[in-house]
Amino acid sequence: MILFILSCLYFFLPAYIANMAPPLMRRTGLFKFLYKSIDAGRQFRGTPIFGDHKTWLGIISSLITGTMVVGLQFWLYQFPFFKEVSFLNYYQINILFFGVTISLGMIFGDLLFSFIKRRANLKPGTPFIPFDQINYVIGVCLVLSPFWLFDKDFSKIDLGVWLALLFLTLFLHIVINRIGYELGLHKAKW
């Protein structure tokens, strides 16, 4: 059971790191020219499409960090421990494609639920539990579904993995955000 949990977390590590990249990058103060909202202030039925907090900095930093983590996983795959906890054979998959795809899945889930929150007239930062915590798991699951359903290289990733990731991510998200809130790094407790 512990190996399964470690394997789930290790598989999803690129998405976890990609999800943390935007607020961390914003705090650096670098690349201010990318602080522009991706919806450019446009609205859909009278409300912002995503909101001004979804920026190009977030998109780009998520893509880069998620892809870099997959590159690190590729390198770590040479070591027996990482081979044992890996659902994927990193030597058999296209690392760049997988890194970009898992990162895009994370971004898709985040944007999808941001869009839904705006339609429900919920402001950024308003609790939307549990979707604020698991939106990117749903996004990655949907974007990777052609692979985990039909590609033999992804045969170890099944519905059980996705269900475990939903529960693990919900728990971890709440714990990590609470710690970040207490440290003054995060505005919301959830």
From TrEMBL:
Give the highest taxon in the source lineage.
Bacteria
Keyword list (alphabetical) reads:
Membrane, Transmembrane, Transmembrane helix
Stored InterPro entries: CarS
Q: Provide an example Pfam family for this protein.
A: CarS-like
Stretches that traverse the bilayer? 56-77, 89-113, 133-150, 162-181
Does this UniProt record's set of keywords contain S-adenosyl-L-methionine?
A: no
Q: Can you say what this protein is called? A: CDP-2,3-bis-(O-geranylgeranyl)-sn-glycerol synthase
